Amino acid sequence: MGEYTVFTLSQVAHHKSKKDCWLVIHGRVLNVTKFLEEHPGGEEVLMEWAGKDATQAFQDIGHSMSAQKLLLKYQVGVLQGCTFTKGSHVSIEEPKKFEMSAFVIKDDRMPKYELLLDFFLPLLVAGSYLAYRCMMH
Ligand code: HEM
């Protein structure tokens, strides 16, 4: 992966026409000029955010995972001072890492069968012992 150019928001603000449209989402600077006509949500909404940080608007719509991956296709740089990129590297793996940590948290909980075993195993042992004693008498 190469290194991305760092842009300030005021540099991004220069690219706000239909023929040269940039916007920022999640700290990524995107050149969406070629995407304007393709956007399923229409080009008007994109133009509203031309030259600006559209992260909140993008989030509010609840864009699909494939829409989020599509962001990478149009990325031309990173926003100066953005927190999610350390240094100038932006990794495609970043959203996946979030999914993974969510899984880890879920897996951390004790599985149900283990709880059942903890409860029933001593009962089973005690029951077997009593049955054995009865049979011996
Ligand atoms: C480069 C940035 C963007 C990409 C790649 C993108 C991509 C997409 C895609 C693929 C869809 C189809 C539905 C889905 O898969 O979620 C969509 C729908 C939509 N997008 Fe975007 N989008 C971007 C930015 C924005 C922004 C900044 C807005 C601002 C509000 C916006 C508003 C919408 C709306 C209103 C829809 C229609 C939702 C619906 O019909 O339910 N998008 N976008």
TrEMBL record:
Pfam families: Cyt-b5. It is found in: Membrane. The chain crosses the membrane at residues 115-132. Keywords: Heme, Iron, Membrane, Metal-binding, Transmembrane, Transmembrane helix. It comes from the Eukaryota. SMART domains: Cyt-b5. GO terms for molecular function: heme binding; metal ion binding. The keyword GTP-binding does not apply. Gene3D superfamilies: Cytochrome b5-like heme/steroid binding domain. Belongs to the cytochrome b5 family. This is Cytochrome B5 isoform D, ARABIDOPSIS CYTOCHROME B5 ISOFORM D. It comes from Hibiscus trionum.
